[in-house]
Amino acid sequence: MVQFTLPKNSKIGTGKTWPHPATAKAEREFRIYRWSPDDGHNPRIDTYYVDTGDCGPMVLDALIWIKNNVDATLTFRRSCREGICGSCSMNIDGLNTLACTKAMSEVAGAVRIYPLPHMAVVKDLVPDLTNFYAQHASIEPWLQTVSPTPQKEWKQSHDDRQKLDGLYECILCACCSTSCPSYWWNSERYLGPAALLQAQRWLVDSRDEATGKRLDDLEDPFRLYRCHTIMNCAKACPKHLNPAKAIAEIKQKLVERQV
């Protein structure tokens, strides 16, 4: 029988358990993935105890409290704290989501936090999104036209504008792509749910005049057709978008232009 095991340097060990806050009337246990490229040690899980009476209700509030009051070396991304920028995306309680919109009350027991799965880790909860951003750039996410530029603006009817709903709201947090098994296996060639959702956003924009070129670029066995409609992307999206539907609509466009 073949036995598969993780390389020794990737096995997660037990880390440090930090002291309980001295004056806390109520606290929550946090188990957080830690890894640094500088110390040469394996990843570990550190245990922290957060004084819930001294911080806000969201998981990001707790992470900031830990960094400010317990362990200044804890590393994570954050910015807007309002579910707009996508910076604080991570795996919380087994689901990819935003730490700023995930309430501690939504998690039973210890709050377990890991970086987004199946991506190289820069440090602690910070994944390397270089490839993810490059794939987004590859779909050329800007208006492309050949008609003379109007003096004021490109006009669009209300009905055509409504076609963009459910597409333009993407904040590029990468929660969907890193929840997709096809993206785990083919991330170098498969664009993934986030980039393809954005591709559909420009394909349906009535002002854009590069539809044929965009479809030519997507018609590839790997760039588009690795999607098997598993629907993890829709489940993980913190903005409640449906990348799988957008991908299906792109496939439909490619079929229609062959008829």
Order of helices and strands: EEEHEEEEEHHHHHHH
Secondary structure tally: strands: 8
Give start-end ranges of low-pLDDT stretches: none
From the N-terminal CA to the C-terminal CA, the straight-line distance is 50 Å
Helical stretch tally: 8
The dominant shape is elongated
Find the structural class using helix and strand composition. Answer: alpha/beta
Q: Tell me the Rg in angstroms.
A: 21 Å
* Sheet with the most strands: spatial strand order: 1-3-2-6-4-5
Q: Kindly report the average pLDDT value.
A: 95
Percent helix: 25-40%
Strand content: 5-15%
Notable features of this structure?
259 residues; 6-stranded mixed β-sheet; elongated; two-stranded antiparallel sheet
Give a brief description.
The protein has 259 residues and is of the alpha/beta class. It is built from 8 helices and 8 strands.
Task: Describe the secondary-structure layout.
Elements: E1 13-17, E2 27-34, E3 44-51, H1 59-69, E4 89-92, E5 95-98, E6 111-114, E7 121-123, E8 126-127, H2 130-138, H3 158-162, H4 181-186, H5 192-203, H6 211-218, H7 232-236, H8 243-256
Parallel strand pairs: 1-3, 2-6
Antiparallel strand pairs: 2-3, 4-5, 4-6, 7-8
Helix pairs in contact: 2-5, 5-8
